Amino acid sequence: MENRKKLIIDMTTEGEFVDPPQTEYFRGAFNGRRAPLTERIGRTAVVVAVLAVLLCVAALALWFALALIPVVIVSSAVAWAAYRFQLWRARRH
User: Fold this and answer.
1) pLDDT per residue over 35-48, tens digit each?
2) Which of 10, 39, 58, 63 meets the CB 3.0–4.6 Å disulfide criterion with 18?
């Protein structure tokens, strides 16, 4: 732990920094260079896989919604028939 670089943050009493931030800490893992090819391919593969999963979930949800349309039609026809039957019974008595 002795070789570790010690960071010193100098601030004024108003909460401002004395010195501007050193850019070497904020460049990222590759010092401003592009990521290696294998990492870029890996990121792209992960993005494509996530998009494929989202597409499958959306297709499954659409299929489920479309499969419910006949159920809704039949249940509304049964409800309409029950309503008409109740009206017929009410008129009869």
Assistant:
1) 888 989 999 999 99
2) 10
d(CA 36, CA 44): 13
**CA angle centred on 19, ends 13 and 24, rounded to 5°:** 135
Other CB atoms within 10 A of residue 35 CB: 13
Rounded to a whole number of angstroms, the distance between the first and last alpha carbons of the chain is 95
Res. 27: pLDDT tops 60: no
**Residues in the chain, overall count:** 93
Sign for the pseudo-dihedral over CA of 19, 21, 23, 25 = positive
11 DSSP β-pair partners = 17
3 state DSSP class of 17: strand
Give the CA count within 13 Å in the CB-facing half-sphere of 50. Answer: 6
Reported pTM: 0.51
Contact status, residue 19 vs residue 10, Cβ threshold 8 Å: yes
Cα gap 58→60, rounded to integer Å: 5
